[in-house]
Amino acid sequence: MPLRALRLPLLGAFLLLAVVSLLSAKAAPAQEGSVTGGPYERLVIRGATLIDGTGSPPVGPVDIVVEGGRITDVRRVTALDLARGTERAAGDRVIDAEGKWVMPGIIDAHTHMGHGGELPANYIPKLWLGHGVTTVRTFVGSEDDPAVALSAAQERGEATVAPRVRLSRFWRGDDPRLWSAEDAPQVVAEWREQGYEGVKISGKPGLLPDVLRAIAEATREQEMGLAVHIGQDGVVPMDAVAVASAGASTIEHHYGYAESTFEDRTVQDLTADYDYGDELDRFRATARVWDEAEMDRLHGSVTDTLLALSREGRFTMVPTFSVYEDQTDLARARNLPWIEDYAHPAMVEGWTPSRETHGSFYFEWTSRDEAAWGRMFLKWLPWVNEFKNRGGHAALGSDAGTFYHLYGFGTIREMELMERAGFHPLEVVRSATMESARAVGLEGETGVVRVGHEADLLVLDHNPLDDLKVLYGHGALRTDPEGGARRIHGLRYTISDGRVFDARSQLEDVREMVEEAGR
Predict the structure, then answer these.
(1) How far apart are CA 481 and CA 434, in angstroms?
(2) Distance between CA 362 and CA 245 in Å, rounded?
(3) SS3 assignment, position 426
(4) Which residues in 215-280 belong to E strands, given as ranges?
(5) Residue-wise DSSP of 96-158
(6) CA–CA separation, 221 and 216 (whole Å)
């Protein structure tokens, strides 16, 4: 649905037009190695080993045919087939993928474009494309968020240099209807008319029980998603079981699960001077609630209830492990190998410890704080793996942009942490593709390499199932035959809606932006 009826101040509208002009690129044919090309009348990827996104084992060699931005044929063509005279598919562009791998494009189900201060308009999209991200669900708080302009350009059919954008609107602002269960459906309907595909709730008023239930019913009627970040300001009485039972399509992060296990109390044991508005207080306390969790109940009745809601309804877990990893080891986060070359100075400035900036609470971060988060990770990650093993739906979301957590790189790190939690690499890929498509409302449209689906595909020089690190834009460090060190790069092409992007060129563009900004 197009974004319409969005009222923008004159200056805001001017800035959004500038964003669109920078993000848009005229589609044109391209040769191997060029930055972009397509869409093509007929694109053929020939001879690849296919990882289809369902969790099925790889199979090859496979030819994939794309016409009109959709997959029209997926055919195994073996040496025996060729010896028998089978003709290979032809097209106006053919990618020779012999010895390469193809998988669905990655869908990041939890993103924001509002982090990081003054950034070049195409900086974040290029980081995404350079890491194989072909669709993002982006949470926006106002019409002047850059994601709104990008989504509107895509709805107009403009060929943006960016992944597909799915917009969800935050349930906050000064509209008194946001506090009313009777008026909530009207707000949802208006946002749907404006083109939003979902609603994002974070704390009150959306987590008032009557309001949440009204929003959930309205979003279901409007065929919209409902993402909920429970938070400590909304967890009483709306813990994770209550939120999922009310009709949330996704629960973001880890909040509310530990509280769902309480039997001898209803609230976390917080100090009398605790202030949720103080981010240092908040992030110190939110890990420690897992010390109070009744783990037998978490693995028992809580999991049973959430599994039933996930199997029978629309509930999907989006844990966003990676956005919290910094809290377990701050020194590691500050020295990640891609920060210097790919983190824009405007982002780095925003990460400087500060009481005034969201996500910059590290001015008094201690070893005790890291230990609390470490204990929480030891409980949280294996439990999400158990939820998946028993039939629950778990999707990938990075929530990149804050605390040394860089776009694109953070998405791949989320995949690594899923593997650390116990996911098989095939399950990691499934969560990043098929399960994320379900989470963002695109099930049956993308996320799986299947005839009739959108042509969102990745072509890789190295097998990601062997090592997810080959998906990182800066490559994976290996030794060469002479005994030295070299970096291998797995991702070659990111194909979004039938358009072919040279992934490495996107990352090189980002490096140049960072250099020009004075790093």
Answers:
(1) 38
(2) 35
(3) helix
(4) 225-229, 250-252
(5) E-TT-EEEEPEEEEEE-SS-SSS--TTHHHHHHHTTTEEEEEEEESSTTSHHHHHHHHHHTT-
(6) 9
How far is residue 505's CA from residue 519's CA, in Å, rounded to a whole number? 19
Q: Which residues pair with 66 in a beta bridge?
A: 43, 71
**Number of alpha carbons in the 13 Å side-chain half-sphere of residue 412:** 25
> Which helix (H) or strand (E) covers residue 45, if one does?
strand 43-50
Token pair listed for 276: 């949720």
The residue whose two tokens read 């029978």 is: 312
Whether 41 contacts 69, CB under 8 Å: no
Question: Which residue in the block uniquely carries the two structure tokens 């925003």?
Answer: 350
**pTM of the predicted model as reported, rounded to 2 decimal places:** 0.92
pLDDT in tens, 279-333: 899 999 999 999 999 999 999 999 999 999 999 888 999 999 999 999 999 999 9
Contacts of 334 (CB under 8 A, 6+ apart): 404
- Name residues whose C-beta falls within 8 Å of residue 290's C-beta, 6 or more positions apart in sequence: 254, 258, 375, 376, 379, 380
For residues 345 and 519, the answer to whether their CB atoms sit within 8 Å is yes
